[in-house]
Amino acid sequence: MSNAEKRKKKTDRLFEIVILLQARPNLTSKDLAEHFGVTRRTIFRDLRSLSESGVPLTYGEDTGYEILEGYQLPPLMITAREAATLLVGLGFMKLQTDPTLQAEAEAVEVKIMNVLPQETRSFVSRLKDRTVLDPYWSSALKVDRESDGWWHKITEAVTTRNSLIIDYYVESRDEVTRRTVDPLGLVYYTDHWNLIAFDHLRGTIRNFRLDRIRKLHVSMSRFEAPEDFDLQDHVDRSQMSDEIHQVVIRFKQTVASTAVRVLPARIDNMDAHDAYVDIAFRFDNLHYLSNWLRRFGTDAEVIEPAELKGLVAEEARKVQDLYS
């Protein structure tokens, strides 16, 4: 381990000691040594370093170490790994289609970088230079300037309980309908956001893809969310609704691991064989799934349902007609 790595490891440990003592006062040097897997001598050196840096440590024979009440950690006292995790997460946010979301993720990244210690900032900068998040994503995005800022408007409506008036594109009927909806939560799937909302037109809770909202207006009207509504429970139960299709896809072994990794659904069952793997799951949008399966070509075969088989066959005929 290089000297720089040793210093970084010690710095990370010092940060965590402060956090530990604030969360669990009265720890002994033995407790800390066991927690970090180091010697008590190392812990004593660490505690001395903290005291010299201004952390108000106290010690009692019967109470162990603690930090005087009222002491606050400096802003963004985070480790290099934690900073890297935050910035990679912001990198994903910058891939979103909402330009406002992209710009604000960029602004947050700049603020974080500016207040990091030099050593941590250098570590994160090197990582950024050597990390690419989906190089083809941005060129494939269709950014609609009219939807600029919608994500934030929707999240604010979710928290303030303001109804929304939306013009929503219904793919199956190729038409746009106006809806008044009560926004209850947001769910991010593989490549898109879904708004979970009570639909006044249908009189039930439904899913609305954000990329199919054509116009959006935040109403001044407030609503009361159902007392028994739980977003995670709703998402889980929606996988059991009548609109969900039971799907089984047979993937060749050569692509099975990739399919498992990128499948836009929760896997219910996997049946592995020498040459292929049958993957069973539930899904609500067969048109989307048909398009998604294109990437696997002849390495994926639909076992069920019959409707999905028909959609895939229809797409295959279109491709054949195109090149015949």
Explain what you see.
The protein is extended, with a radius of gyration of 26 Å. It folds into 4 domains: 3-67, Winged helix-like DNA-binding domain superfamily/Winged helix DNA-binding domain (Arc Repressor Mutant, subunit A); 80-132; 146-238, SH3 type barrels (Roll), CATH 2.30.30; 245-323, Alpha-Beta Plaits. It is α+β, with helices and mostly antiparallel strands and 324 residues long. Strands 6-5-4-3-7 form a 5-stranded antiparallel sheet, covered by helices on one side. Strands 9-10-8-11 form a 4-stranded antiparallel sheet. A two-stranded antiparallel sheet has the order 1-2. Helix 1 packs across helix 3 (40-52), helix 4 (80-93) runs antiparallel to helix 5 (99-115) and helix 4 (80-93) packs across helix 6. 44% of the residues lie in helices and 25% in strands.
What is the total domain count? 4
The tally of beta strands, per DSSP, is: 11
Strand content: 25-35%
CATH class category of the largest domain: Mainly Beta
Average pLDDT, all residues: 84
CATH architecture label name of the largest domain: Roll
Radius of gyration: 26 Å
Biggest sheet overview? 5 strands, antiparallel
CATH fold naming of the largest domain: SH3 type barrels
Total of helices: 12
- Taken in chain order, the helices and strands follow as HHHEEHHHHHEEEEEHEHEEHEH
SS content category: alpha+beta
Sum this structure up briefly.
By secondary structure, this protein is α+β, with helices and mostly antiparallel strands. Helices cover 44% and strands 25% of the residues.
